[in-house]
Amino acid sequence: xxxxxxxxxxxxxxxxxxxxxxxxxxxxxxxxxxxxxxxxxxxxxxxxxxxxxxxxxxxxxxxxxxxxxxxxxxxxxxxxxxxxxxxxxxxxxxxxxxxxxxxxxxxxxxxxxxxxxxxxxxxxxxxxxxxxxxxxxxxxxxxxxxxxxxxxxxxxxxxxxxxxxxxxxxxxxxxxxxxxxxxxxxxxxxxxxxx
Length: 195
Hints:
Layout: E1 6-13, E2 16-23, H1 28-35, E3 54-57, E4 60-63, E5 76-78, H2 91-98, H3 108-123, H4 145-151, H5 162-194
Parallel strand pairs: 1-5
Antiparallel strand pairs: 1-2, 3-4, 3-5
Helix pairs in contact: 2-5, 3-5
């Protein structure tokens, strides 16, 4: 008897569990779009080269056209549909909107998911190919336009909105940087109030 080529899997997408039968060869992209009707994630090249299908998998960016759905079982998948909070856009989404970081909008969901992960990678001190000082003790390098372009290089925009995309990412990163100390202070205040 031949082994089965399909399974019933449960995916945790945007905080909700979805159980679905899939062929083992089904990509995460196709599971999202074709099985779950989450069409915000776009199918661009279907070869992992354009970044239009970028989603977050356990907080890290992946091109979902190269990720098998069965390999995402038990992991947290975040798509563009899961970024807004109670109708309020995520700061990265808001920056793209405010600074016109899109034209046709096709690549925008992948750009935004990638930017969100990229900002966190930078804040954690991960170097890029253009980072001058890669020693861990050097900390995060300045998030210059060159750094942003390099870190976002896996996401292509056929319309050429790159200048606005870089500006939007820079604004969102600055908002994250200035919000992080406030969040830490709020946590400290809560700890003091509880103590």
